[in-house]
Design a protein that fits this description.
Layout: E1 3-6, H1 10-21, E2 27-31, H2 39-42, H3 74-87, E3 94-96, E4 100-106, E5 111-116, E6 119-123, E7 125-128, E8 149-151, E9 165-169, H4 173-182, E10 188-192, E11 199-200, H5 209-217, H6 219-241, H7 246-260, H8 264-270, E12 282-283, H9 287-291, E13 296-299, E14 303-307, E15 310-313, E16 318-320, E17 323-326, E18 341-342, H10 349-353, E19 371-373, H11 386-406, E20 411-414, H12 416-430, H13 434-437, H14 459-467, E21 474-477
Parallel strand pairs: 1-2, 1-7, 2-3, 4-18, 7-19, 8-17, 9-10, 9-17, 10-13, 11-12
Antiparallel strand pairs: 4-5, 5-6, 14-15, 15-16, 20-21
Helix pairs in contact: 1-11, 5-6, 11-14
Length: about 475
């Protein structure tokens, strides 16, 4: 077929919709899971919600006037994806329970040969849309724990936490959401924190029915809200590029902490020593009050091991627990899909990247023709919506795919010097950003210590540069000579 997409999350569904809008209908979307939604299908932990305003967290071509909260919760986001899938008629293209095992580029026939769990497929174009928030990062902790232990993204709803002693390992974005949700029902909650996080107040609220009616009746009103929220987030983004500005935002974080936590000792343990923005910025109105509750203990240490029902801290502390919950994040840069996509020489993306993912405009990798990676390397902004990044990429990808098919070219392969120039400019521009100067260790950096996650410029520049497809940036093989 013309195109195969891997994954039915926000990226894969967006690609499918845009293909149909461009008149390209010979495609399939492979999904190893039983249903669509990606990270919004997998993450069902208590309190799961978006940390980007709802009006921004949607496709620009499919606004949702019915969000019931300013920051939408998981179930509502998944419902939006289901409804949008049906609205744009892409459900017939979805193939559930089909896992990509290996993709290999055939240079003679100019096709991607795909081995899947349901048999072989061939495609002229491969679009990987598996995302960085997919595969949970499972820490290697010595010993064994006697009770239930699970990752937040694989929440075990069969395990009742009521009246239990619960240990939480990790204090990232997921933990900041589920800790306040479970705190009232547990007997005791032990939170193991290696590094304190900057947590800002979250301007969340219920959206009244009258406001939703206004958005349905006058779509321009919601577009204006979306624009205002975008500009607000972009103002925050200035601080990422000019770290001194973050001192103003840090003052808000410190005031939030001081108002929420009476104990000076606990405030000290929760106060970061790095510049805000160096790690992902978190927002919550309930996290600090939960940690200050009488049944919660914060342990400012890593976990060194398990011994039956005992959790052992790296500082020598020992606590008893009935359940352990891992809030340890995802394989953000160690993408599982990278080991399954192979070039003509048989090298996988993993082989080529050697621990440091690189792609032209975060989208195309030299040596892997007719392949595009959505939400790829160095496209993370830290302050705005993934939908905005995705749609810029889709403009680029759809222009490339449409040109390839319409002109009957056999392949497009980004030129190595073009990719290298882009990667070099990104790394150079990152030098003065808060990601590099903020004094922290974050998932923005790969195993080689290189920032392979962050975009160093404005999101307006991202939209402009990433969206633009220039055939001169690619080596073009034409015309298509092999008839299949």
């Amino acid at each position: 077929m013309d195109v195969v997409i891997i994954g039915t999350g926000v990226s894969g569904l967006g690609a499918a919709i845009r293909l149909r809008q461009a008149g390209i209908t010979d495609f399939a979307v492979l999904e190893k899971g039983p249903s669509l939604g990606g990270t919004w299908r997998d993450n069902t932990y208590p309190g799961c919600a978006c940390d980007v305003p709802s009006a921004l967290y949607s496709y620009s071509f499919a606004p949702n006037p019915s969000w019931t909260r300013a920051f939408a919760e998981q179930a509502e986001i998944r419902q939006y994806l289901e409804q949008t899938t049906d609205r744009y008629g892409v459900r017939p293209h979805l193939r559930f329970g089909v896992e990509l095992l290996r993709a290999s580029w055939d240079p003679v026939r100019a096709v991607w040969s795909l081995e899947t769990s349901s048999g072989p497929l061939e495609a002229r174009v491969l679009i990987t849309a598996t995302g960085p928030w997919h595969e949970p990062l499972m820490p290697s902790i010595p010993g064994s724990f006697a009770g239930p232990i699970f990752h937040s993204s694989r929440w075990d709803h069969a395990v009742s936490l009521a009246g239990k002693r619960v240990a939480v390992i990790g204090t990232g974005a997921s933990a900041v959401q589920f800790i306040p949700a479970i705190q009232p029902s547990v007997a005791s909650l032990h939170v193991f924190q290696r590094t304190p996080q900057w947590v800002l107040p979250k301007p969340d609220h219920y959206v009244p029915s009258a406001e939703r009616w206004l958005f349905r009746r006058f779509p321009l009103a919601q577009r204006l809200l979306r624009r205002v929220e975008y500009l607000g987030m972009e103002t925050l983004g200035l601080g990422f590029r000019h770290p001194r500005l973050m001192r103003l935002v840090e003052a808000v974080g410190r005031l939030h902490l001081r108002r929420s936590v009476p104990s000076a000792a606990l405030r000290s343990a929760l106060t970061p020593t790095y510049t805000l923005g160096c790690k992902r910025i978190l927002m919550s109105n309930t996290y600090y009050p939960a940690l200050a509750s009488s049944n919660v203990s914060v342990h400012p240490t890593a976990v060194a091991g398990f011994d039956g029902s005992t959790v052992i801290g790296a500082d020598g502390s020992r606590i008893e627990a009935d359940v352990v919950i891992l809030g340890t994040g995802f394989k953000i840069l160690d993408l599982p899909i990278a080991s399954r996509v192979h070039n003509a020489a048989g090298q996988s993306l993993d082989d080529v990247w050697q621990g440091s993912p690189r792609a032209y405009l975060g989208t195309a990798v030299s040596g892997f023709p007719n392949a595009f990676n959505l939400l790829g390397p160095n496209l993370g902004t830290g302050h705005t919506s993934a939908f905005m990044i995705l749609e810029a990429q889709l403009d680029h990808v759809l222009a490339a795919v449409s040109t390839l098919l319409n002109r009957n070219w056999s392949s497009l392969d980004v030129r190595p010097e073009v990719q290298e120039a882009f990667v070099t400019s990104v790394q150079s521009a990152l030098t003065g950003t808060v990601y590099e100067t903020g004094g922290c260790a974050s998932y923005y950096h790969d195993t080689n210590g290189r920032n392979s996650f962050s975009w160093p410029w404005s999101s307006a520049r991202l939209q402009r540069d990433v969206a633009r497809f220039s055939p001169s940036d690619y080596t073009i093989s034409k015309p298509l000579e092999v008839v299949r």
